[in-house]
Amino acid sequence: MILEEEYLFQLMVMTNYKQFSDPNNGISFEYPEEWEYQTEGSVGVTIFARKDTLENIHERPFDPIFNVISSKLSNKASPETFINSQLSQLQYMAPDAPLKVEDIDLSGVTGKKVFTRIRQGNESMSFIAVFATFNGTGYAMFFHCDSQMFKTLSPVVAHMITTIKFSKFANKLLTLHPFIVQSANMIIRYPSGYEVIKKADDDNSKAEVTFILKDKNQNGEETKAEIKVVIQKRTGTLDEHVDMMKDNLERMLVDEVNISKLRLGTVPSVSFTWRNDAKMKNGYFMHLLTSENDEAPIIAVSFVSNFIESETRISDIFKAVRNSIRFLSDPEFDQNSVKWNTHYSLDHKVGLHYNPDHFVFENVPLTEGSFIMKEDENKDNPRCNFALMVKTLESEARNLDDIEKELIRNLSELCDNAVEVIQKKDITMLGFKGKLTIFKGEAYNPMHNTKESLIFVYKFLIADNKKSIMFAFSSSPDIWEREWAKANTYIGTLFLY
Known about the structure:
- The protein is α+β, with helices and mostly antiparallel strands.
- It has nine helices and 30 strands.
- The strands form five sheets. Strands 3-4-5-9-8-7-6 form a seven-stranded antiparallel sheet, with helices on both faces. It has a seven-stranded antiparallel sheet with strand order 13-14-15-19-18-17-16, with helices on both faces.
- The two termini are 51 Å apart.
- Mean pLDDT is 86; it is low at 1-6.
């Protein structure tokens, strides 16, 4: 379909663009001001086009359209593997079309740019694809239009591609690692990628331990995120130390300080957050005051960053670290978890603890985290896995029975209607009603080109009538009881912040 000449002329002289930024998937770029976009968040697809094209997208396949598809890479997928698989799929889609492939620099990230022309009957479609990986995410970007328009539209596409930038902290899933501060009798969990600097015996610095991440932003400026644990001599009650902190902030002329009371396990604590561009460009500060008991020293944990919040979600990351702090003497603290990692969804504020010696985290699309057995880490066909899935409900009318019925329908399709219910029971998790359902069935295994018997376990709840939280476990029958017992232990550590 050929668009009107007036529109093509507008594109030729167009200089106005809008900024698109997706911090969850770590990508931003500029696109034409009069275009709009729609996002399918569950599958990581965003489509850019004119409004009338978006409204009639299936009837107007030759209209100019720009797609961005992002997906989390599995631990075993290298950047080369991802890009080569995308090139293979593209060639499969157009077997008779020659592909012109070249390297492309996307603000310091090397990717591949592909051009081809596909004929459909008497018409021809020009097609540009860009593939890249960054920070554990694979990106596939596609532009196509009627070939007669391509010369006019190519400068617009070139502008969109050349303004692409990736964000390092884009991941919505966070892995936290345990660190015991012996001198404070507490555990704190720090994000993957942070350097750990322990206090040496002859070190006169105040910090017992420092966690730090250094980087450079898109302008080449130094950026950092830093977390320090300091033991302060107690000079009064926790409330009196809080008042002293308030006085210090007033002397620093800091405005708009957010002060919140919280409990770390059973221990009352106070958190301060503020911004201060005068002290540090893009400066974000958090300060926590807590104490093991009324006689113990005051523990001060400081959080400082100048990463750009909209791109990094640094405040969410700091809050996850803050909320992970526990004193080892806390009666609610599970002593078995001192060596466990924490997996946390920044989007849904949902997390759990797990033993990395038993299960290994993998990025899997459409989940908030998937885990396979450690012994199967390098195998193409893991025998057991479990995944966390969270869904915001469209209607509060949804209930547990509806979710269970949908499960049975989906499993029946997967197993060619050969599904047997082994157990069903009502449960309670985090004070919310839930269900546990166990199935047995046969599913096709593409790795072996055979059907295999599997045990499926689903444990799910609806939290605050707003979102469903589900754990999906599957295993070969010979090991399912043993592995489910382990997985269920970690599922039992589920928490909401």
